[in-house]
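Next up, a chain.

===
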Amino acid sequence: MKNEEIAPHIEDITRALKGKASKEEVEQELEKWLEKYGLSLTEVKRSVVKKLGGDPQDLFARTEKKVNEITGTEKNLELKARIVSINEKKIEVEGEPKTIHYGIFGDDTGTIPFTLWEPLTEPLEKGDTVHVINAYATTWNDKPQVNIGSRGRMKMLEGDEVPEFKRTPQRCDMRDVREGMSNLIITGRILDLEKKIVQTENGEKELYSGIMADETGKVQFSAWHDFGLKEDMVIEVNGGYVRSWRGIPQLSFDENATVDKLEDDTLPPKDELEESGIMTISQLARRGGAVDAIVDAVMIDIKSGSGLIFRCPECNRVVQKSACRIHGKVDGEPDLRVKGILDDGTGALTVIITREQTEKILGYGLDEAMQLARDRMDHGVIKDELEDHLIAQPLRLKGNVTCDDYGLMLIAREVKEKKINMEEEARRLLDEVRV
């Protein structure tokens, strides 16, 4: 086994030995047993613990903790908590569809995000109280979260067995909204609003969703109750909570929240707020994503897969050598895009610029790009032109920023060259040197 594969098992054995052996001794003994005997990993771990003077039963000892005691490194974790929120999500694992559930646990000490990686054995909903066994904790964006995998179990408890977390309401600006927040007081102007009918476990329900903004930024919201909301209305939500989708924080509030209509001059006009939300990449990383964000940065690299590309007509994936990794040999459909790296001095992220904006950058459309590639007998000529236009160019980009295991990604809806006043910039840099 590779070092990274046995590292968690070394931790398990060291913990079970309670100081009777060092990690180095455990690693040497574990590797020797794995090489010498044809036993299962579970049996090997028990044997190593026993040989080094420990009790094999301690391998399976659980640590029951309160929410505020979870640090992000626990295994065999046990806790009792209320479900503050729970949501379903469909993902793809090794090419196969899978349904997982995510949400927020809470007790009298605080709240923490959780992910359930296996199917539910019984229906769960907001307000239920559960006993979680054999979970593990990890860290995401410097915050701990609970994971329940194939070894984990959840069973229902009586509602009064876990005291409810009573958090003092916290007032928050849009740019500071983070996953896991609850009991928020937040003021914003509704930039757009859409009414939907969604299917829940309790039947059809009305959902009012859209985007709210203040001077600091924007956030997507979902109202699970008819509060009489209208576009361009300024409201104060008391009792909101935050969950994320692909790293983009989303504000939710239901019949337990209060929503007050405020005077129109409480916030700037709608057209001004449409342009709010300039954020640094480090702010986006701490937040974990954003909706309709504005980023000022420099393009430092144009990746392969930029310029003139071809997509699978079935799934829209980019094809390589006329082959889709899902549908095999296909006649790809042409498209234009930029896939690059932006840097603003505080961090870097991946950016995707779609066809419409790529055509504006080039100054011509897809048909002309196809003809140019044919004339030069080289599809790479379009990527070369994009590099000439964009590399080292200060840009202002606008769009949604998502976050996953690969980091931040900006899907740019608008791209503009950012004009720099060289005199002001020189003065700013000189001031920084003097400090």
Notes: The chain has four domains: 3-60, 63-161, 170-273, 281-417. The mean pLDDT is 86. The CA atoms of residues 32 and 389 lie 58 Å apart.
